[in-house]
Write a structure and sequence with these properties.
This protein is α+β, with helices and mostly antiparallel strands. Helices cover 36% and strands 23% of the residues. The chain folds into five domains: 4-103, Rossmann fold (3-Layer(aba) Sandwich), CATH 3.40.50.20; 132-201, 2-Layer Sandwich (Dna Ligase, domain 1), CATH 3.30.1490.20; 205-328, 2-Layer Sandwich (D-amino Acid Aminotransferase, Chain A, domain 1); 332-448, 2-Layer Sandwich (D-amino Acid Aminotransferase, Chain A, domain 1), CATH 3.30.470.20; 461-502, no CATH class. Mean pLDDT is 90; it is low at 452-459 and 489-505.
Length: 505
Protein backbone atom coordinates (compact mmCIF):
# COMPACT_ATOMS: atom_id res chain seq x y z
CA UNK A 1 0.00 0.00 0.00
CA UNK A 2 1.10 3.57 -0.70
CA UNK A 3 3.03 5.06 2.23
CA UNK A 4 4.44 8.28 0.76
CA UNK A 5 3.08 10.52 -2.02
CA UNK A 6 4.89 13.26 -3.90
CA UNK A 7 2.41 15.95 -4.94
CA UNK A 8 3.57 17.26 -8.32
CA UNK A 9 1.75 20.58 -8.08
CA UNK A 10 1.52 23.80 -6.14
CA UNK A 11 -0.95 26.08 -4.39
CA UNK A 12 -4.39 25.13 -3.22
CA UNK A 13 -4.61 21.77 -4.99
CA UNK A 14 -1.32 20.66 -3.42
CA UNK A 15 -2.73 21.60 0.00
CA UNK A 16 -6.01 19.86 -0.75
CA UNK A 17 -4.31 16.57 -1.72
CA UNK A 18 -2.00 16.68 1.29
CA UNK A 19 -4.90 17.12 3.70
CA UNK A 20 -6.47 13.84 2.57
CA UNK A 21 -3.07 12.16 2.77
CA UNK A 22 -2.70 13.40 6.34
CA UNK A 23 -6.05 11.87 7.30
CA UNK A 24 -5.01 8.55 5.72
CA UNK A 25 -1.67 8.51 7.53
CA UNK A 26 0.29 8.86 4.28
CA UNK A 27 3.49 10.94 4.27
CA UNK A 28 3.77 13.71 1.69
CA UNK A 29 6.56 15.33 -0.32
CA UNK A 30 6.10 18.82 -1.73
CA UNK A 31 7.91 20.07 -4.81
CA UNK A 32 8.30 23.78 -5.36
CA UNK A 33 9.89 26.30 -7.66
CA UNK A 34 12.17 29.06 -6.40
CA UNK A 35 9.22 31.46 -6.65
CA UNK A 36 7.11 29.20 -4.40
CA UNK A 37 9.63 28.70 -1.61
CA UNK A 38 7.30 30.46 0.88
CA UNK A 39 4.08 28.80 -0.33
CA UNK A 40 1.99 27.12 2.36
CA UNK A 41 2.13 23.68 0.70
CA UNK A 42 5.91 23.67 1.22
CA UNK A 43 5.52 24.04 4.99
CA UNK A 44 2.55 21.70 5.27
CA UNK A 45 4.21 18.68 3.66
CA UNK A 46 6.37 16.26 5.64
CA UNK A 47 9.26 16.88 3.23
CA UNK A 48 9.91 19.37 0.43
CA UNK A 49 12.21 19.64 -2.57
CA UNK A 50 13.04 22.61 -4.79
CA UNK A 51 12.87 21.53 -8.42
CA UNK A 52 13.99 24.63 -10.28
CA UNK A 53 13.39 28.26 -11.29
CA UNK A 54 10.02 30.01 -11.38
CA UNK A 55 9.27 29.17 -15.02
CA UNK A 56 6.92 26.17 -15.14
CA UNK A 57 8.80 24.52 -17.97
CA UNK A 58 11.89 24.41 -15.75
CA UNK A 59 10.10 23.19 -12.63
CA UNK A 60 6.51 21.94 -12.47
CA UNK A 61 6.54 20.78 -16.10
CA UNK A 62 9.96 19.11 -15.91
CA UNK A 63 9.30 15.36 -15.78
CA UNK A 64 12.91 14.41 -15.08
CA UNK A 65 13.17 16.67 -12.02
CA UNK A 66 9.91 15.41 -10.53
CA UNK A 67 10.81 11.76 -11.04
CA UNK A 68 14.25 12.42 -9.54
CA UNK A 69 12.65 14.06 -6.49
CA UNK A 70 10.26 11.12 -6.01
CA UNK A 71 13.16 8.68 -6.05
CA UNK A 72 15.32 10.81 -3.79
CA UNK A 73 12.64 11.06 -1.11
CA UNK A 74 11.38 7.49 -1.50
CA UNK A 75 7.86 8.33 -2.67
CA UNK A 76 5.75 5.31 -3.64
CA UNK A 77 3.39 7.40 -5.74
CA UNK A 78 2.88 10.77 -7.43
CA UNK A 79 -0.36 12.77 -7.38
CA UNK A 80 -0.38 15.36 -10.20
CA UNK A 81 -3.32 17.50 -8.99
CA UNK A 82 -4.79 19.42 -11.93
CA UNK A 83 -3.03 21.43 -14.62
CA UNK A 84 0.71 21.09 -15.27
CA UNK A 85 1.41 17.35 -15.90
CA UNK A 86 -1.93 15.98 -14.69
CA UNK A 87 -3.06 14.98 -18.21
CA UNK A 88 0.36 14.28 -19.67
CA UNK A 89 0.44 10.71 -20.99
CA UNK A 90 4.23 10.76 -21.23
CA UNK A 91 4.46 11.58 -17.52
CA UNK A 92 2.03 8.80 -16.55
CA UNK A 93 3.95 6.29 -18.67
CA UNK A 94 7.28 7.44 -17.25
CA UNK A 95 6.03 6.95 -13.68
CA UNK A 96 4.97 3.40 -14.54
CA UNK A 97 8.36 2.71 -16.14
CA UNK A 98 10.18 3.97 -13.04
CA UNK A 99 8.06 1.83 -10.71
CA UNK A 100 6.20 4.82 -9.24
CA UNK A 101 2.41 4.71 -8.94
CA UNK A 102 0.72 7.49 -10.90
CA UNK A 103 -2.46 8.55 -9.07
CA UNK A 104 -4.47 9.37 -12.14
CA UNK A 105 -5.75 8.01 -15.41
CA UNK A 106 -3.82 5.42 -17.43
CA UNK A 107 -1.64 6.87 -20.20
CA UNK A 108 -3.74 5.09 -22.84
CA UNK A 109 -6.94 6.79 -21.65
CA UNK A 110 -5.20 10.17 -21.58
CA UNK A 111 -4.07 9.75 -25.17
CA UNK A 112 -7.56 8.86 -26.37
CA UNK A 113 -9.37 11.59 -24.46
CA UNK A 114 -6.63 14.25 -24.51
CA UNK A 115 -6.81 14.45 -28.29
CA UNK A 116 -10.24 16.01 -28.87
CA UNK A 117 -10.58 14.54 -32.36
CA UNK A 118 -9.74 11.04 -31.15
CA UNK A 119 -12.12 11.54 -28.22
CA UNK A 120 -14.97 12.42 -30.60
CA UNK A 121 -14.26 9.32 -32.65
CA UNK A 122 -14.19 7.12 -29.54
CA UNK A 123 -17.45 8.53 -28.20
CA UNK A 124 -19.25 8.12 -31.52
CA UNK A 125 -18.16 4.48 -31.60
CA UNK A 126 -19.49 4.05 -28.03
CA UNK A 127 -22.89 5.51 -28.93
CA UNK A 128 -22.36 8.76 -27.01
CA UNK A 129 -24.00 11.82 -28.64
CA UNK A 130 -21.47 14.45 -29.78
CA UNK A 131 -21.78 18.00 -31.10
CA UNK A 132 -22.03 17.94 -34.92
CA UNK A 133 -18.64 18.59 -36.49
CA UNK A 134 -15.54 17.04 -38.05
CA UNK A 135 -13.94 13.77 -37.04
CA UNK A 136 -10.66 14.57 -38.77
CA UNK A 137 -8.14 17.41 -38.51
CA UNK A 138 -8.57 20.38 -40.83
CA UNK A 139 -5.80 20.62 -43.43
CA UNK A 140 -5.80 24.39 -43.86
CA UNK A 141 -7.90 27.55 -43.75
CA UNK A 142 -9.54 26.79 -47.12
CA UNK A 143 -10.84 23.46 -45.84
CA UNK A 144 -12.04 25.21 -42.66
CA UNK A 145 -14.16 27.55 -44.81
CA UNK A 146 -15.57 24.66 -46.85
CA UNK A 147 -16.47 22.51 -43.82
CA UNK A 148 -17.93 25.45 -41.90
CA UNK A 149 -20.31 26.28 -44.73
CA UNK A 150 -21.39 22.62 -44.89
CA UNK A 151 -22.12 22.47 -41.15
CA UNK A 152 -23.66 25.91 -41.05
CA UNK A 153 -22.62 29.04 -39.19
CA UNK A 154 -21.91 29.83 -36.42
CA UNK A 155 -19.10 27.33 -35.72
CA UNK A 156 -16.31 26.82 -33.20
CA UNK A 157 -12.73 26.26 -34.37
CA UNK A 158 -11.01 24.27 -31.62
CA UNK A 159 -7.53 22.97 -30.89
CA UNK A 160 -7.49 19.18 -30.70
CA UNK A 161 -4.96 19.29 -27.86
CA UNK A 162 -6.68 22.27 -26.24
CA UNK A 163 -7.84 23.10 -22.78
CA UNK A 164 -8.44 26.07 -20.50
CA UNK A 165 -10.17 28.04 -23.22
CA UNK A 166 -7.06 28.26 -25.42
CA UNK A 167 -7.00 27.58 -29.15
CA UNK A 168 -10.73 28.27 -29.52
CA UNK A 169 -12.40 30.75 -31.87
CA UNK A 170 -16.10 31.41 -32.44
CA UNK A 171 -16.97 32.39 -36.02
CA UNK A 172 -20.23 33.98 -37.17
CA UNK A 173 -19.30 35.14 -40.67
CA UNK A 174 -17.75 33.34 -43.66
CA UNK A 175 -15.12 36.03 -44.20
CA UNK A 176 -13.85 35.57 -40.61
CA UNK A 177 -13.18 31.83 -40.89
CA UNK A 178 -9.69 31.90 -42.42
CA UNK A 179 -8.32 34.43 -39.92
CA UNK A 180 -9.94 32.55 -37.03
CA UNK A 181 -8.35 29.29 -38.20
CA UNK A 182 -4.89 30.83 -38.43
CA UNK A 183 -5.22 32.52 -35.03
CA UNK A 184 -6.50 29.39 -33.31
CA UNK A 185 -3.76 27.30 -34.88
CA UNK A 186 -1.04 29.76 -33.85
CA UNK A 187 -2.34 29.84 -30.27
CA UNK A 188 -2.56 26.04 -30.19
CA UNK A 189 1.05 25.67 -31.32
CA UNK A 190 2.18 28.22 -28.73
CA UNK A 191 0.19 26.67 -25.86
CA UNK A 192 0.27 22.95 -26.65
CA UNK A 193 2.95 22.54 -29.34
CA UNK A 194 0.21 21.03 -31.51
CA UNK A 195 -1.56 23.01 -34.23
CA UNK A 196 -4.28 20.44 -35.02
CA UNK A 197 -7.66 22.19 -35.44
CA UNK A 198 -11.17 20.82 -35.89
CA UNK A 199 -14.66 22.31 -36.25
CA UNK A 200 -17.84 21.95 -34.19
CA UNK A 201 -21.27 23.44 -34.67
CA UNK A 202 -21.78 26.27 -32.18
CA UNK A 203 -24.75 25.76 -29.87
CA UNK A 204 -25.89 29.32 -29.22
CA UNK A 205 -27.41 29.04 -25.74
CA UNK A 206 -25.74 26.01 -24.17
CA UNK A 207 -25.43 24.98 -20.57
CA UNK A 208 -22.05 23.55 -19.57
CA UNK A 209 -22.78 20.53 -17.40
CA UNK A 210 -20.23 17.93 -16.35
CA UNK A 211 -20.54 14.55 -14.66
CA UNK A 212 -18.00 13.28 -12.16
CA UNK A 213 -17.02 9.64 -12.72
CA UNK A 214 -14.95 7.25 -10.64
CA UNK A 215 -13.62 3.92 -11.89
CA UNK A 216 -11.39 1.22 -10.37
CA UNK A 217 -8.98 -1.33 -11.85
CA UNK A 218 -11.61 -4.09 -11.70
CA UNK A 219 -14.04 -2.74 -14.29
CA UNK A 220 -16.35 -0.96 -11.82
CA UNK A 221 -17.44 2.57 -12.68
CA UNK A 222 -19.95 4.98 -11.14
CA UNK A 223 -20.93 8.59 -11.61
CA UNK A 224 -21.25 11.05 -8.73
CA UNK A 225 -23.82 13.23 -10.48
CA UNK A 226 -23.46 16.60 -12.15
CA UNK A 227 -21.98 20.06 -11.72
CA UNK A 228 -23.37 23.17 -13.40
CA UNK A 229 -20.45 25.18 -14.84
CA UNK A 230 -22.17 27.66 -17.18
CA UNK A 231 -20.98 30.88 -15.53
CA UNK A 232 -17.82 31.45 -17.54
CA UNK A 233 -15.68 34.36 -18.64
CA UNK A 234 -13.39 33.84 -21.64
CA UNK A 235 -14.22 30.12 -21.52
CA UNK A 236 -12.94 29.98 -17.92
CA UNK A 237 -15.31 28.88 -15.16
CA UNK A 238 -16.09 31.44 -12.46
CA UNK A 239 -18.91 29.94 -10.37
CA UNK A 240 -20.06 26.31 -10.22
CA UNK A 241 -22.90 24.60 -8.41
CA UNK A 242 -24.33 21.15 -7.77
CA UNK A 243 -26.97 19.95 -8.44
CA UNK A 244 -27.66 21.83 -11.66
CA UNK A 245 -30.89 23.88 -11.51
CA UNK A 246 -31.55 22.83 -15.12
CA UNK A 247 -31.67 19.08 -14.52
CA UNK A 248 -34.67 16.80 -14.23
CA UNK A 249 -34.38 13.38 -12.56
CA UNK A 250 -34.92 11.65 -15.90
CA UNK A 251 -32.25 13.61 -17.80
CA UNK A 252 -29.84 13.30 -14.87
CA UNK A 253 -30.17 9.53 -14.88
CA UNK A 254 -29.72 9.33 -18.66
CA UNK A 255 -26.67 11.61 -18.71
CA UNK A 256 -25.13 9.75 -15.79
CA UNK A 257 -25.53 6.42 -17.57
CA UNK A 258 -23.90 7.83 -20.72
CA UNK A 259 -21.05 9.36 -18.68
CA UNK A 260 -20.28 5.91 -17.24
CA UNK A 261 -20.48 4.40 -20.74
CA UNK A 262 -18.01 7.00 -22.00
CA UNK A 263 -15.53 6.23 -19.19
CA UNK A 264 -15.78 2.50 -19.77
CA UNK A 265 -15.19 3.00 -23.50
CA UNK A 266 -11.60 4.05 -22.76
CA UNK A 267 -11.12 1.60 -19.84
CA UNK A 268 -10.82 4.51 -17.47
CA UNK A 269 -9.37 4.31 -13.95
CA UNK A 270 -9.54 6.91 -11.19
CA UNK A 271 -11.46 10.19 -11.02
CA UNK A 272 -12.47 11.89 -14.26
CA UNK A 273 -15.07 14.23 -15.68
CA UNK A 274 -17.32 13.90 -18.71
CA UNK A 275 -18.33 17.35 -19.96
CA UNK A 276 -21.54 17.98 -21.90
CA UNK A 277 -23.21 20.85 -23.68
CA UNK A 278 -26.95 20.92 -22.96
CA UNK A 279 -29.44 23.07 -24.85
CA UNK A 280 -32.61 24.69 -23.53
CA UNK A 281 -34.61 21.61 -24.56
CA UNK A 282 -32.31 19.31 -22.50
CA UNK A 283 -30.69 17.77 -25.56
CA UNK A 284 -27.11 17.01 -24.58
CA UNK A 285 -23.85 16.39 -26.43
CA UNK A 286 -20.44 15.12 -25.35
CA UNK A 287 -17.90 17.95 -25.23
CA UNK A 288 -14.73 16.42 -23.79
CA UNK A 289 -13.33 14.32 -20.97
CA UNK A 290 -10.96 15.68 -18.35
CA UNK A 291 -8.75 12.81 -17.24
CA UNK A 292 -7.90 14.33 -13.87
CA UNK A 293 -9.37 15.90 -10.76
CA UNK A 294 -11.31 19.06 -11.60
CA UNK A 295 -10.89 22.44 -9.91
CA UNK A 296 -14.56 22.33 -8.93
CA UNK A 297 -14.52 18.82 -7.42
CA UNK A 298 -15.28 20.10 -3.86
CA UNK A 299 -18.94 20.79 -4.62
CA UNK A 300 -19.40 17.14 -5.59
CA UNK A 301 -17.67 16.11 -2.37
CA UNK A 302 -20.02 18.31 -0.34
CA UNK A 303 -23.20 17.08 -2.02
CA UNK A 304 -22.36 13.39 -2.38
CA UNK A 305 -20.24 12.99 0.75
CA UNK A 306 -17.24 11.32 -0.92
CA UNK A 307 -13.59 12.41 -0.58
CA UNK A 308 -12.46 12.14 -4.20
CA UNK A 309 -8.75 12.33 -3.40
CA UNK A 310 -9.01 9.43 -0.96
CA UNK A 311 -10.88 7.44 -3.60
CA UNK A 312 -8.15 8.23 -6.14
CA UNK A 313 -5.57 6.86 -3.73
CA UNK A 314 -7.65 3.75 -3.02
CA UNK A 315 -8.00 3.07 -6.75
CA UNK A 316 -4.25 3.55 -7.22
CA UNK A 317 -3.74 0.99 -4.43
CA UNK A 318 -5.71 -1.51 -6.53
CA UNK A 319 -8.74 -1.54 -4.25
CA UNK A 320 -12.26 -1.93 -5.67
CA UNK A 321 -14.74 0.94 -5.31
CA UNK A 322 -16.34 0.99 -1.87
CA UNK A 323 -19.81 1.76 -3.23
CA UNK A 324 -22.17 0.99 -6.09
CA UNK A 325 -24.27 3.44 -8.09
CA UNK A 326 -27.36 2.79 -5.99
CA UNK A 327 -25.43 3.73 -2.84
CA UNK A 328 -24.83 7.28 -4.09
CA UNK A 329 -27.22 10.22 -3.89
CA UNK A 330 -27.22 13.99 -3.84
CA UNK A 331 -27.86 15.75 -0.53
CA UNK A 332 -28.46 19.47 -0.32
CA UNK A 333 -26.84 22.06 -2.55
CA UNK A 334 -23.27 23.36 -2.94
CA UNK A 335 -21.81 26.41 -4.70
CA UNK A 336 -18.16 27.22 -5.44
CA UNK A 337 -16.63 30.60 -6.26
CA UNK A 338 -13.10 30.84 -7.61
CA UNK A 339 -11.14 33.53 -5.77
CA UNK A 340 -8.63 35.14 -8.11
CA UNK A 341 -6.00 37.87 -7.77
CA UNK A 342 -7.22 40.00 -10.66
CA UNK A 343 -8.37 43.53 -11.34
CA UNK A 344 -12.03 43.68 -12.35
CA UNK A 345 -11.64 47.37 -13.25
CA UNK A 346 -8.83 46.60 -15.69
CA UNK A 347 -10.28 43.85 -17.87
CA UNK A 348 -9.55 41.25 -15.15
CA UNK A 349 -5.80 41.52 -15.52
CA UNK A 350 -3.95 39.32 -13.01
CA UNK A 351 -2.69 41.25 -9.99
CA UNK A 352 0.24 40.56 -7.71
CA UNK A 353 1.48 41.84 -4.38
CA UNK A 354 1.88 41.03 -0.71
CA UNK A 355 -1.24 40.04 1.22
CA UNK A 356 -1.46 42.54 4.05
CA UNK A 357 -4.67 41.34 5.64
CA UNK A 358 -6.52 38.05 5.21
CA UNK A 359 -9.85 37.21 6.79
CA UNK A 360 -11.28 33.92 5.54
CA UNK A 361 -14.95 33.26 6.29
CA UNK A 362 -16.06 30.72 8.86
CA UNK A 363 -19.31 29.17 9.99
CA UNK A 364 -21.55 26.22 9.24
CA UNK A 365 -21.42 24.86 5.69
CA UNK A 366 -18.33 26.86 4.76
CA UNK A 367 -15.11 25.54 3.20
CA UNK A 368 -12.07 27.45 1.93
CA UNK A 369 -9.49 25.64 -0.20
CA UNK A 370 -6.56 28.04 -0.37
CA UNK A 371 -2.82 28.37 0.14
CA UNK A 372 -2.24 32.03 0.98
CA UNK A 373 -1.61 33.79 4.28
CA UNK A 374 -0.88 37.27 5.61
CA UNK A 375 2.55 38.35 4.42
CA UNK A 376 2.56 35.97 1.45
CA UNK A 377 3.54 37.49 -1.89
CA UNK A 378 1.52 36.32 -4.88
CA UNK A 379 4.01 35.36 -7.64
CA UNK A 380 3.58 36.61 -11.20
CA UNK A 381 4.43 33.31 -12.85
CA UNK A 382 1.27 31.21 -12.34
CA UNK A 383 -2.51 31.13 -12.59
CA UNK A 384 -4.15 34.01 -10.66
CA UNK A 385 -6.53 31.72 -8.74
CA UNK A 386 -5.56 31.87 -5.08
CA UNK A 387 -8.39 29.87 -3.57
CA UNK A 388 -11.87 28.43 -3.80
CA UNK A 389 -14.80 29.31 -1.57
CA UNK A 390 -17.35 26.53 -1.16
CA UNK A 391 -20.65 26.55 0.71
CA UNK A 392 -23.20 23.83 1.37
CA UNK A 393 -26.81 24.16 2.54
CA UNK A 394 -29.95 22.04 2.52
CA UNK A 395 -31.48 23.97 -0.41
CA UNK A 396 -30.21 26.09 -3.30
CA UNK A 397 -31.88 29.19 -1.85
CA UNK A 398 -30.10 28.75 1.46
CA UNK A 399 -26.80 28.02 -0.32
CA UNK A 400 -27.03 31.34 -2.20
CA UNK A 401 -27.80 33.16 1.05
CA UNK A 402 -24.80 31.51 2.69
CA UNK A 403 -22.51 32.38 -0.22
CA UNK A 404 -23.56 36.03 0.03
CA UNK A 405 -22.67 36.01 3.71
CA UNK A 406 -19.26 34.35 3.33
CA UNK A 407 -18.28 36.56 0.38
CA UNK A 408 -19.07 39.55 2.59
CA UNK A 409 -16.81 38.12 5.31
CA UNK A 410 -13.94 37.32 2.93
CA UNK A 411 -11.34 40.11 3.13
CA UNK A 412 -8.02 40.29 1.30
CA UNK A 413 -5.98 43.49 1.20
CA UNK A 414 -2.68 44.30 -0.45
CA UNK A 415 -3.81 43.34 -3.94
CA UNK A 416 -6.98 43.33 -6.01
CA UNK A 417 -9.29 40.31 -6.16
CA UNK A 418 -12.56 39.35 -7.84
CA UNK A 419 -14.49 39.01 -4.56
CA UNK A 420 -16.73 42.03 -5.20
CA UNK A 421 -17.46 40.72 -8.69
CA UNK A 422 -18.55 37.39 -7.23
CA UNK A 423 -20.80 39.17 -4.74
CA UNK A 424 -22.63 40.87 -7.61
CA UNK A 425 -23.17 37.53 -9.37
CA UNK A 426 -25.00 36.23 -6.30
CA UNK A 427 -27.58 39.03 -6.68
CA UNK A 428 -28.28 38.79 -10.42
CA UNK A 429 -31.89 37.60 -10.87
CA UNK A 430 -30.98 35.07 -13.59
CA UNK A 431 -28.57 33.35 -11.21
CA UNK A 432 -30.91 33.50 -8.24
CA UNK A 433 -33.68 31.94 -10.32
CA UNK A 434 -31.32 29.32 -11.79
CA UNK A 435 -32.21 30.40 -15.32
CA UNK A 436 -28.86 30.98 -16.98
CA UNK A 437 -26.48 29.51 -19.55
CA UNK A 438 -22.94 30.18 -20.81
CA UNK A 439 -24.02 33.67 -21.97
CA UNK A 440 -24.75 34.70 -18.38
CA UNK A 441 -21.86 37.13 -17.95
CA UNK A 442 -22.30 38.73 -21.40
CA UNK A 443 -26.05 39.14 -20.87
CA UNK A 444 -25.69 40.60 -17.37
CA UNK A 445 -22.67 42.78 -17.93
CA UNK A 446 -24.58 45.92 -16.89
CA UNK A 447 -25.42 44.36 -13.51
CA UNK A 448 -21.77 43.40 -13.04
CA UNK A 449 -20.36 46.72 -14.22
CA UNK A 450 -17.13 48.15 -12.89
CA UNK A 451 -18.91 51.29 -11.67
CA UNK A 452 -21.28 49.27 -9.52
CA UNK A 453 -18.39 47.20 -8.23
CA UNK A 454 -16.60 50.41 -7.31
CA UNK A 455 -19.65 51.77 -5.48
CA UNK A 456 -19.95 48.50 -3.53
CA UNK A 457 -16.29 48.68 -2.54
CA UNK A 458 -16.64 52.35 -1.63
CA UNK A 459 -19.56 51.55 0.67
CA UNK A 460 -17.54 48.83 2.38
CA UNK A 461 -14.60 51.18 2.92
CA UNK A 462 -16.94 53.74 4.47
CA UNK A 463 -18.37 51.09 6.79
CA UNK A 464 -14.90 50.06 7.92
CA UNK A 465 -13.88 53.70 8.44
CA UNK A 466 -16.94 54.37 10.60
CA UNK A 467 -16.26 51.29 12.71
CA UNK A 468 -12.59 52.26 13.09
CA UNK A 469 -13.49 55.78 14.20
CA UNK A 470 -15.80 54.42 16.90
CA UNK A 471 -13.14 52.02 18.11
CA UNK A 472 -10.86 55.04 18.60
CA UNK A 473 -13.75 56.67 20.42
CA UNK A 474 -14.00 53.70 22.78
CA UNK A 475 -10.30 53.84 23.59
CA UNK A 476 -10.56 57.55 24.42
CA UNK A 477 -13.58 56.90 26.60
CA UNK A 478 -11.74 54.27 28.57
CA UNK A 479 -8.61 56.38 28.97
CA UNK A 480 -10.57 59.41 30.23
CA UNK A 481 -13.36 57.66 32.12
CA UNK A 482 -13.73 57.94 35.90
CA UNK A 483 -11.74 55.39 37.89
CA UNK A 484 -12.86 53.10 40.68
CA UNK A 485 -11.08 52.94 44.03
CA UNK A 486 -8.65 50.30 42.67
CA UNK A 487 -7.91 52.46 39.58
CA UNK A 488 -10.04 50.41 37.10
CA UNK A 489 -11.92 52.45 34.46
CA UNK A 490 -15.69 52.58 34.63
CA UNK A 491 -16.84 51.17 31.29
CA UNK A 492 -18.84 53.33 28.90
CA UNK A 493 -19.60 50.62 26.36
CA UNK A 494 -23.31 51.33 26.76
CA UNK A 495 -22.77 54.87 25.50
CA UNK A 496 -20.93 53.50 22.45
CA UNK A 497 -23.73 51.00 21.90
CA UNK A 498 -26.26 53.82 21.55
CA UNK A 499 -24.23 55.24 18.66
CA UNK A 500 -23.51 52.07 16.66
CA UNK A 501 -26.87 52.12 14.90
CA UNK A 502 -25.21 54.51 12.45
CA UNK A 503 -22.89 51.75 11.22
CA UNK A 504 -24.13 50.18 7.99
CA UNK A 505 -23.45 46.46 8.45
Amino acid sequence: MIKKILVANRGEIAMRVMRSCKEMGIKTVAVYSEADRTSKHVFYADEACCIGPAASRESYLCIDKIIEAAKRFGADAIHPGYGFLSENAEFAARCKKEGIIFIGAPAEAMIKMGDKIMARQTMIAAGVPVVPGTQEALKDADEAVKVAMQIGLPVMLKASAGGGGKGIRLVWKKEEIADAFNTAQSEAISSFNDGTIYIEKFIETPHHIEFQVLADQHGNCVHLFERECSIQRRNQKVVEESPSPLMTPEVRAKMGEIAVRAAKAVKYEGAGTIEFLVDDHLNFYFLEMNTRLQVEHPITEEVVGVDLVKEQINVANGLPLRFKQEDLSQRGHAIECRICAEDAENNFMPDTGVIKQLQEPLGIGTRVDSFVYEGYEIPVHYDPMIGKLIVWAVTREFAIERMRRVLYEYRITGLKTNISYLRKIMDVPAFVEGKYNTKFIAENNDKLSEEKLYEAEKSEVEDIAIIASYMDYIVNLEENSPKTSDNRPISRWREFGKRTSMVRI
